[in-house]
Each structure stands twice: as structure tokens, then as C-alpha cells.
Amino acid sequence: MAKKDYSGKQLSTKAHRVLLIVNVVVFLAAVALLVGSIRHDETVSVVAASLVMLVSAGNAFMSGLRLKGKKL
Q: Where are the transmembrane segments (predicted)?
């Protein structure tokens, strides 16, 4: 079975809007986990939540730019 090439596919505006909402929700959940982990002195969870926040913030930023029609 041949592999499909998805490199040239463009997502719809609705898909970018859904991705933006999902990434914002994930970011807020990671903030809540980060605060709880800091209060309980759990270093591994703090690092993990920080990485999730970084990635979801980047994804939300890129989805927002693509919703505005900017190409990167």
C-alpha cells in the first residue's frame, strides 16, 4: 500500500478554528497542572506542563496566523 503525501494539503478555516480552540484548552489545562505541581513541589510535572504549554502556545499562534490568511 502506497503512502499518501499530505505535504501539499491545506486545512480549511473551520479546521484551523477547531485547532485554535483545542490548543487554547490544552494550554489552560497545562497552566492548571503547572500551578498544582508547583504547589506540591513535583519537578517532573512542572517540566512536562511547561513543555506542553510551550508547544500548545506555538500551535495556537500558528493556527491564529493561518486563520488570518498569513503564510509562513
A: 20-38, 44-62
